[in-house]
Amino acid sequence: MRRLLALLFVLGCSSAKLTPALSPRDSTVWWRNGVCYEVFVRSFYDSDGDGIGDLKGLIARLDYINDGNPSSTKSLGANCIWLMPIDKAHSYHGYDVTDYYHVDPQYGTDDDFRALVSEAHRRGIRVIVDFVPNHSSSYHPFFQAALTDPASPYRSWYRFSTAKPTQPGPWGQEAWHKSPLRDEYYYGVFWHEMPDWNYETPAVVDEMLKVMSYWLTAMKADGFRFDAIPYLVEDGNALQHARGTHEVLKRFGNSIRSQAPQSFTIGEESDMAALPTYYPDQLDSYFEFGVAAATLESARTGNASAFVTAVNRANTSLPEGRWSPFLTNHDQPRVMEVLNRDMSRARLAATAMLMLPGMPFVYYGEEIGMLGTKPDETIRTPMQWSSAASGGFTSGKPWEPLQPDWRTKNVAGQDADDSSLLNHYRRLIHLRNAHVALSRGRLLVESTNNAAIAAFVRQTSEETLLVVMNFGAAVLNNVSATMNNELSGRRLRLLDGEPEGGCGPATVVSDARTFTIAWIGALVGCVYHVTR
């Protein structure tokens, strides 16, 4: 560990002059002004009829994500897509990489990826790719060399032990796996077919830096989503969040920013108590799992307290604009399952998430209310485009069966329905894009007179917006909240609220810090413009 830290310190100092400072106050970077859409390429759209989604299929559907027209009502308006792993891999999900430098042939070619980036950029969409730095596949040629030959130069790239260590993994699981060739063991925190890289070996750090540089320069990617970052380095009993992990991430982040100052990096780290230790100078942002869980909890129960508490914690303990809200992702039961298939609650959860600071992430199909729970394959089923055969996803047999409701729940069916969940997402994303206060304004959480109500302000020097949400199942009258800022001489004009008539007029009372709303409908979110 000391050798690793010393090496990283020296290398970090040698490149310090080239590394731009990461300023949490810089609100002009593109990832402070938009929404990112998570895509499992395998399940998005199949262009050649083999039943597996591919990069050409994604290109064909880019207009659905963003057609390049800010006033469009037919695209989501997202300015970023995150692609789950597209490298060559052994498993369908791609998180056991066998070749970090090339696109899996099932999805297309390296040139197809470059074409995707070009077409995406033409529409104002940035492309970030999943990067798996914690482990490789057990079928990766480097691991196979290390496994078969103890004298291999790649032996030190992984962790081997002749005696089985008694120490369990970070959540009590078996992490040392028996070699199939001899009486020895290797470390893999997730499972035996995902052996961990050994970051004590300088060549491993160099190789990962080389991989990232390749995707930024040769492939023209706009950044990375880092998978499983807490487990990069093991230090004695510290199997997650180790000091060495932070040093490695700092080195990675600095290298990326020096090569591509407009890039974006975001990490997967679900321990909210440890999250502040990943700032200020490692990756750009991290997923806020605590806010995500609390948003769904409040939407499910009708009590706003979980949401308010989690948002307050994130807002006070993390750098402004550098934590990303979301609802669920490819590892979790889908939103509609968590909310017991209640469309109204799903709409309100979307409102709560999309009005928060940072770059929100939307998991493909979430915007039409797709279903899916464990096992993982059924959380990642093909996109439901229409009621045509195979949901319009493929002309062949889908790699995984669609959800049973695909004939009645699909993009085509919701497209023309102004009140659909799809058009709710479209409207909110375009609202966010149109108002600088929603995309990069500071967040002020307000106190209210009802446990079902959450209220917060998004504010820049240019505008102030008030967001009020009723998580409860009943219409509430005379809702009030106390503001952090004085409202003397201000008026509140309704900017957005659905359904029509769900948001009553809001007025400022005599103390100039309290406002009242005449009524707010059940499971309704309202956005007011604070004007003079």
In short:
By secondary structure, the chain is of the alpha/beta class.
Q: Measured on Cα atoms, how large is the radius of gyration? A: 24 Å
| Number of strand segments | 21
Main-sheet strand order equals 12-11-10-9-5-2-1-13
| Count of helical stretches | 15
**Distance between the terminal alpha carbons, to the nearest Å?**
59 Å
- Mean pLDDT reading: 93
Question: What is the overall shape?
Answer: globular
Give the percentage of residues in beta strands.
Answer: 15-25%
Low-confidence sequence ranges: 9-25
Based on helices, strands and strand pairing, what is the structural class? alpha/beta
- What does the main sheet amount to? 8 strands, parallel
- Helical coverage, percent range: 25-40%
Structural commentary:
With 532 residues, the protein is of the alpha/beta class. 28% of the residues lie in helices and 19% in strands. The protein is built from 15 helices and 21 strands. An eight-stranded parallel β-sheet has the order 12-11-10-9-5-2-1-13. Strands 18-21-16-15-14-17-20-19 form an eight-stranded antiparallel β-sheet. The chain has a three-stranded antiparallel β-sheet with strand order 6-8-7, with no helix packed on it. The longest helix is centred in the middle third of the chain and has 17 residues, at 243-259. It is globular.
List the helices and strands and how they pair.
Elements: H1 2-14, E1 36-39, H2 41-44, H3 55-60, H4 62-65, E2 80-83, E3 87-89, E4 97-103, H5 110-122, E5 126-131, H6 141-148, E6 160-161, E7 176-178, E8 185-187, H7 202-217, E9 223-226, H8 243-259, E10 264-267, E11 285-287, H9 289-301, H10 305-317, E12 323-324, H11 335-338, H12 343-354, E13 361-363, H13 411-415, H14 421-434, H15 436-440, E14 442-448, E15 453-459, E16 464-470, E17 476-482, E18 491-498, E19 506-508, E20 514-520, E21 524-531
Parallel strand pairs: 1-2, 1-13, 2-5, 5-9, 9-10, 10-11, 11-12
Antiparallel strand pairs: 3-4, 6-8, 7-8, 14-15, 14-17, 15-16, 16-21, 17-20, 18-21, 19-20
